[in-house]
Amino acid sequence: MDKQQILIVDDEEINRLILDGMFEEEEYGKIEASNGQEAIYHIENTHNLGLILLDIIMPVMDGFKVLEYMQEHGLIDKIPVILITSETIGDSEDKAYSYGVADVIHKPFYPYIVKKRCNNIIKLYQNKHNMEVRLKEQEEAILAQQKEINDNNEFMIDALSSVIESRNAETGDHTKRIKRLTRIMLKCLMELFPQYGLTESQMDLITRASALHDIGKIGIPDAILLKPGRLTDEEFEIMKSHTTIGGEILQKFYRNQKSEFDRYAYEICRHHHERWDGRGYPDHLAGDEIPISAQVVAIADVYDALISPRVYKSAFTPDEAYDMIVNGKCGQFPPDILECFSLAKDEFNLL
How far from chain centre, in Å, is Cα 63? Predict the structure, then answer.
């Protein structure tokens, strides 16, 4: 490892010689500057600069100008500065500390004491730097582990959704489209309606959770799930139960009450067929009683169902599906959600 460099900045050569003589060559490399301008040149061009011993009163550029430069370039926290001054304790010392210097030493000084203080500060900043590096490495490792966990969870969720869709005679693209439509809606909602307080993290969680919206269909008999014609009232009641079945399944697997993902998955699974006017199911929630996660997935689910062929119907065009939704032919949706749906129409049509 390269030796750390000490930059000695003083306009008086005798002072530079005294300060230089305090440090052994095998310990540190030493660089000298006779004014602030030279000091800045060395700061910009010296690798592994471990300490600056800085005088205040100098020609061309004084020590405070050097501190201003370091502060503007974010160097004060990275390179410790010890101010060495002949001025009496007072305003200049207060000003120096306001810039963030590590220490202030007054002339005349005792070389042994100065060396001791310099070594302590170099070690302190080096330990601080090493700790920051270790923390960053640990943070990167944790993020990598979290990404791996999220990727594995994403795979399992998508795999489970595909199994459910295969029972429902669907291609498997329904879940992918729901996730994309949900993200488009959430992004619009986050930008236009800050009152919902949605964050990027919540948007990601809700998008992932949307893949589980129809998990309850695993409990619906094939005779009803795959029926090519219109369901009877009794059969429709059974079909509607996929919302509660799905909620029960999720409650068995997700027991962490503090998990946002678990909550979103449950909300979406149980309430994605609720409607703004209270005529949805299973709980007949109305208005803001319906969780925002379920509101968003509900409109995405209806739109995708309309534009997709089913055993009981042909696919509508995107424009037809759009008109049916905004004109209330598919139930009532929240005004904010409808506004986002209208603004995102072109993006929906591209899917």
Answer: 40
- Residue 44 corresponds to which amino acid? E
Q: 341 with 318: CB under 8 angstroms?
A: no
Alpha carbon distance 119, 330 (integer Å): 75
247, two tokens: 């909620």
Contacts of 106 (CB under 8 A, 6+ apart): 84, 85, 86, 87, 88, 89
DSSP annotation of 308: S
* Cβ pair 4, 48 in contact under 8 A: yes
Calpha distance 8→180 (Å, rounded): 60
Query: Is the whole model's pTM more than 0.85, yes or no?
Result: no
Bridge partners, 105 (sequence order): 84
Q: Which residues of the chain have pLDDT under 50?
A: 171
Whole-number Å distance between alpha carbons of 241 and 27: 77
DSSP 315: P
- Per DSSP bridges, beta strands 29-33 and 103-106 are unpaired
Q: What amino acid positions are annotated as catalytic residues?
A: 217
CB count in 10 Å sphere of residue 281: 18
Q: What is the pLDDT of residue 158?
A: 74
Question: Comparing C-alpha atoms, which of 154, 166, 244 is closest to residue 207?
Answer: 154
Give the helix ranges, DSSP H, for 168-259.
173-192, 200-209, 222-225, 233-240, 242-253
* Residue 55 φ/ψ, nearest 5 degrees: -80, 160
pLDDT tens-digit map of 296-319: 999 999 999 899 887 677 889 999
β-pairing, 103-106 with 49-55? Answer: unpaired
d(CA 96, CA 99): 5
- What phi and psi values does residue 85 have, to the nearest 5 degrees? -140, 150
What token pair was written down for 347?
A: 């993006």
